[in-house]
TrEMBL record:
This is YcgL domain-containing protein HNQ52_001507. It comes from the Bacteria. Residues 1-83 form the YcgL domain. PROSITE patterns: YCGL. InterPro entries: YcgL-like_sf, YcgL_dom.
């Protein structure tokens, strides 16, 4: 699965993963707006079993498949978790 990652300019260490490049239409405005402007950062193949620096690769894959996006928040903002989607 190809994955496209964008970094929020407004929220430090917050990233938006998309299943399709520049397909922001699938991200609800209530989630998208607080992120502010986004900078394209990275694209890579998110294969089963691939480890991510932060977060659970399988959870990211599931969110991309189901919703078309995954938002990774700084661990300090999500009690007891490293990411959310």
């Amino acid at each position: 699965m190809r994955c496209y990652v964008y970094k929020s300019r407004r929220r430090a260490d917050t990233y938006l993963f998309l299943a399709q490049r520049d397909d922001f239409a699938r991200v609800p405005e209530a989630l998208r707006a607080p992120l502010g402007d986004l900078d394209f950062t990275l694209e890579f193949d998110l294969t089963p079993g691939r480890r991510l620096v932060r977060g659970d690769g399988e959870a990211v894959r599931a969110n991309l498949a189901d919703r078309g996006f995954h938002i990774q928040f700084p661990s300090s903002e999500v009690p007891g978790a490293h990411d959310a989607g």
